[in-house]
Amino acid sequence: WQKIVIYLDQKVAKIDEAIAKKKQLIKLLEKKCMTTIRNALYFKNVQKRKLKFIATMKYGDALANEIRNAAGNIPVYGSFGQVGLHDVANTSSPVLVIGRKGSYGKVIFSKVPVFVIDTAYFIDSKTSLCNLRWLFYALQNIDFEGSSLDTGVPGLSRAFANNCEIPYCS
Fold it and tell me: Which of 50-59, 121-130, 138-147 has the lowest mean pLDDT?
């Protein structure tokens, strides 16, 4: 038994080391991705506007699990991403879902209409003056950390987000 334990300890240690290296590589690639996006968006003399002059962040709606139609084909999104399915959307498409509580500031792009629950905001084609794919990349470069004034569950203040300046593309 002791030989098996030693063997397993060695193999698990090698696997843990490989996982740690992959996680570090992912962090470096995410940093490179954000740098690439930032460099493409913030070119010389780019016009900037506050978000509130470009788009309106709308609150999602309450939708209890018991009310959801899990057999539907409309994705349901909250702050953490897709949390289920339903048969009715409360957005048009395309749409950005922006985390409001918990995973605040996380931005998700969807090409299809979705149902956004009350832990998130959304910006869809009806509430934006610019290309939503552009806005998706621009919002990913805003540092929403530290914007939370909530003492319990961290959250994104719409007033804070609305006053963030982003590069404008009509």
Answer: 138-147
